[in-house]
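FIELD: query
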Amino acid sequence: MQHNNHIDQGSKQAAYTCPMHPNVQQDRPGICPECGMTLVKEKRKKSELSSDKLSAKSSEHGGHDKHAGHKINVFARKFWVSLALTVPIVLYSPLPQAFLGWSPPMFPGSSFLPAILGSIVFFYGGWIFLTSAWRELRGRAPGMMTLISLAIVTAYSYSVVQVARGMEETLFWELTTLIVIMLLGHWIEMRAVQGAQGALRELSKLLPDTAEIERGGDSAQRKTENIPLDQLRVGDIVVIRPGGKVAADGEIIEGESDIDEALATGESKPVSKKPGDAVVAGTINSEGSLRVKVTKIGDDTFLAGVMRLIQEAQMSKSKLQLLSDKAAFYLTIIAIAVGLLTLFVWLPLRGADFGFTRMVAVLVIACPHALGLAIPLVASISTTMAARNGFLVRQRLALEAARNINVVLFDKTGTLTKGVFGVTGVYAASGVSEEDVLKLAASVDTKSEHPVSRAIVTKAQEKKNSLAAISDFKRLPGKGVSGVVKGKVVMVGGRALYESAGVIVPDELKQTVVKEGQAGKTIIYVIANESLAGIIALGDIIREESREAIAQLKKLGVQIAMITGDAEAVAKWVSDELGIEEYFAEVLPEHKADKVKELQNKGNKVAMVGDGINDAPALTQADVGIAVGAGTNVAIEAAGIVLVRNDPRDIPKIIQLSRLTYTKMIQNLWWATGYNIVALPLAAGVAVSWGIVLNPAVSAVFMSLSTVIVAVNAVLLRRQSLTSEKV
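FIELD: result
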């Protein structure tokens, strides 16, 4: 993904910069999304930094990718060059004679070869660590780069002094192999982190390079031209060809097609679109040609909003990450103290060479590089997985807290239900089929624009019922509608119609009328030739996805509760239909947060799911606030997690991902720190009497190995699938 490193041109202001990646800058503290390091504060003048806002310019996207690849290539080049120079240094060290009984050929000045090549490796390969350490110290945040720099500066300084004194005991081979291993470790880590960020960076590439817009008035005079996206304006008419990308958020005014919204919303199947439907920037058109009126551009688009939410997630820290940062800082202090103590203990006992070697080994083995990567990399990958699975993490604390959730409180309307009036049941009298009841009612209602009539017609269309022709249509004020269908006089309406018609409700339907009425349903009577053909119950339609979501949550051991402003009867009906254990009915908007507190006071960890402005206080009060993406901006801003697809089945995935993420973080913390328990004393020389000594190069291998293990373990999180199975 791109980084929010916009600073006014030519101005000087406080910025937070990554010690390893100076191009990553922010105006507030945070974590580098490239390597997971803590950003340090510095004054910096902007010269060539990109604004890195979500932009339509392909050159910006391409430039960022090229630069990102170049950074990896820099580490790769430094590694290979340093490795090539280290080989002769090792050959002309005591190692070949000690282990192989072989010595390389000598030549005039060969004794100075390790010093010359070692100096090149120190300044060429090690300089990046030195500059990074300087930034850490300037930001008063000494960390892993400080430790690495202390180790290589100590080794190099000691070796140069030894050469100047004409002594043979130097640490050039330890120094260069340490730098080579550190460069290799950083190279591997950067590749791992960039792999984790890949899906997020893809979001910034979704937009096309240009937009094809219409010029002219009526259809005969229309002409099209391609313009850069930054010239697109609200109200422009954009032509989306088959296979093309949608250039900006807008509304279809002509044409029908299927739109692939997978990368933007996580929806795996193409979504059918027709005039009046909204389309999202960056999504892909299928076979049809569309004319779209632009409603949002630039930072106001859905895609830009997604990028901002992801950037907020990258900036936020979990409790474990804060713990990791503190541990890394204290480990740095401990390593320096132990290193100095080791030096002063061994100087009088075994001399300067042994003492300095032990100190370098301690500084290297204790380097908290793996610790600094352990949590941020897992958090980064989990953020990516969340986006792929249909939800966006605004606050990592929210994702971390989700693992402990034992009650999910759903707002009913728009979350568990569709929030639209629809047919929930069709019941026929004896001798009449339910299909005939629906067909008769829908045939008459085709001439009416009343919401009840529209709902009945929609239900018939969903059932693919062929509607009959109607004649002599009449509106019956306050009662309903009537018409002649296939020679029958059909009347459709509410209780007033039924009472005025004087028809009798058959015994088999009386209990149904009472039951549906108690559930808060609207009862519509269908009368044919003065006899009751059947009744139709209408109400807020329950989402089928809600049933699956609740079943999956129960498998995860989570209790379900519901809150609504609707009447008790409606709330009870929805709860019974979905198998919800507890519900709160007739709750005023200002009292929703009180109900969350009520659940919390019972010792529960509560996740609140809502989509409206009146849900915002409850979302904030809950341990985890989950906003439906189709809801209001107020609800989204109050929540820690946002459902992009308005699909409650994504809620179990949140809990599963939280549990998986926490497990990986704990594993990484152990991998990053556990080896120090054994390795640090060995590096200090406590086992010298048994012949066990860790040289600086060996220490570097152990340290880099733990870093690589942490990176690989974190990347393995991507292999986990979020399903309905219990985690």
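FIELD: remark
Confidence is low (pLDDT under 50) at residues 1-14, 33-38, 43-70.
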